[in-house]
Specification:
Elements: E1 5-6, H1 10-16, E2 27-30, E3 64-67, E4 70-73, E5 76-83, H2 93-100, H3 106-114, E6 118-120, E7 123-124, E8 136-143, E9 148-149, E10 154-158, E11 162-167, H4 184-192, E12 198-199, E13 208-214, H5 217-228, E14 233-241, E15 248-251, E16 255-258, E17 264-267, E18 276-283, E19 287-294, H6 301-309, H7 338-351, H8 358-364, H9 368-379, H10 408-411, E20 414-415, E21 426-432, E22 436-439
Parallel strand pairs: 1-20, 13-21
Antiparallel strand pairs: 2-22, 3-4, 4-9, 5-8, 6-7, 6-8, 10-11, 11-13, 12-13, 14-19, 14-21, 15-18, 16-17, 18-19, 21-22
Length: 453
């Protein structure tokens, strides 16, 4: 196919080809002296400008189309720019792109550097070029973004200073990797006309729940100061393997981040102070629903601490894995070097991008976990499509599937993500400080009798 994307599961398609369901309400508690609850900001539904400088056009058109229950982006040309990171200094260009970017295999990276597609400070360089801190790297790509759930983003609260949403799972907060238009900030700009939003905090791509944006510099500074002073209470809900201990469980193990093609956080003596409070809410005989309270805000903190305690999140493909060893990393036991772990994780997650043949795709979709998560997503009507996403504007237009003969992804078919790679049992339930409190409803998978895994 021209788009470089393929998907054949009838199950997922049937589950999402449905009429829109009514959305359940969210709870928003706040101090009326600080926030005017009656003020509503109207946002005109203007057509979004698809950045088709890339496609040699200034047309205003929708960059998205809906297919098989997924939000997809038409391919486009894009110049990616990044500054040399401190850890890249004095390393050669080929090694950096091969080790830290999972978009292309090493031979393709070498080809792109030698052909001048990848430049340093605007000039072609050799593959052995040694990077300096002042260097600016640019790469021209024919971008094929990965799909995300075709879910409408719900607004929990809005005034002149803040926009608070319930982020659906699978959608990253901001552009990263193979996501740009399929990020929360771009979707909000394209479909809600919320421009120039300030990112206050981040949620993992697979994590759902409360996400706060500031609309101006003053509000951004104020809330960032609240986060810095730890004046904001952050409460998450998750479902973990096994029977979690009763009572309050504190984990104060330091966390260190290691980077390769896949970033991972590990409990490590050289890590940063990290404190999480856990409390079991229920147990159904297989898994437990656990409330998590964050006192620090390290990336992957909840997931890494739960892995260390021996109760990883049920479908956490990164931390609930035997790649860490027979104990899945419990109590920090990895049974291999960190370098070996990073290479093994990169290989596992890189292999998931490609479809070798139709039989392999069919087998991968026969798993009970994928079938059950597809059913779960179907029943979670809070992540369904509104009338706009069901309109003709989101129907696939084959004429916009631009083909580039030099594009790696046009020549290599990518499979669409499985349901298990679109969702994780981790939800940002509540954020509050002395001036406001934003909260979502509890997910349906937190009910005492819930059991489909």
């Amino acid at each position: 196919m021209i788009s470089g994307l393929r998907y054949s599961s009838k199950t997922f398609r049937l589950l999402f080809n449905r009429s829109n369901k009514s959305l359940t309400s969210n709870v928003c508690n706040f101090n009326p002296n600080e926030i005017d609850s009656n003020k509503h900001v109207e946002n005109s539904k203007e057509s979004s400008t698809f950045d088709e400088k890339q496609n040699h056009s200034e047309r205003k058109e929708n960059p998205y189309y809906i297919e098989d229950g997924l939000r997809k982006v038409y391919p486009y040309h894009y110049d990616h720019l990044t500054y040399c990171k401190r850890r890249w200094a004095k390393r050669n260009l080929l090694d950096i792109y091969s080790c830290e970017f999972s978009l292309y295999p090493r031979k393709e990276v070498e080809k792109r550097i030698l052909s001048g597609v990848v430049k340093v400070n605007g000039e072609p360089v050799d593959v052995e070029y040694e990077l300096k801190l002042s260097d600016v790297l640019t790469s021209s790509v024919h971008r094929h973004e990965l799909p995300v759930l075709a879910a409408s983003i719900k607004v929990i609260f809005e005034n002149d200073d803040l926009l608070v949403i319930d982020k659906p799972p699978s959608i990253p907060v901001h552009p990263c990797g193979l996501y740009r238009y399929n990020s929360a900030v771009f979707i909000l700009e394209q479909e809600g006309n919320w421009k120039d939003l300030h990112t206050i905090h981040r949620l993992d791509r697979l994590t759902s729940g409360v996400l706060i944006f500031a609309k101006n510099v003053q509000s951004s500074r104020e809330i960032h100061e609240n986060f810095h002073m730890r004046d904001i209470t952050k409460e998450y809900i998750c479902r973990v393997d096994g029977e979690f201990p009763d009572g309050v469980v504190m984990c104060n193990k330091p966390i260190k981040h290691f980077y390769n093609k896949v970033g991972v956080a590990l409990v490590h003596p050289m890590g940063k102070i990290s404190i999480t409070e856990f409390q079991k809410l229920s147990y159904n005989g297989k898994s437990s629903v656990v409330k998590c309270k964050l006192y620090t805000g390290r990336t992957h903190q909840i997931r890494a601490h739960l892995q260390y305690l021996g109760y990883p999140i049920v479908n956490d493909s990164l931390y609930n894995s035997y790649i860490f060893g027979p104990e899945k990393g419990r109590h920090g036991k990895i049974h291999k070097s960190v370098d070996k772990l990073l290479n093994d994780l990169a290989e596992k997650h890189s292999d998931d991008w490609f479809v070798k043949d139709d039989d392999e795709e069919k087998i991968s979709w026969s798993s009970v976990a994928d079938s059950n998560i597809a059913k779960l997503l179907f029943n979670m009507n809070c992540y369904s499509m509104n009338e706009d996403l069901l309109s003709d504007a989101y129907k696939k237009d084959p004429t916009r599937l631009h083909y580039d003969k030099n594009c790696f992804f046009c020549a290599n078919v990518l499979r669409d993500p499985k349901p298990s790679s679109l969702f994780m049992f981790l939800h940002a339930h509540k954020y509050k400080c002395d001036k406001w409190e934003f909260q979502t409803n509890m997910p349906i998978w937190t009910s005492d009798d819930w059991d489909i895994m």
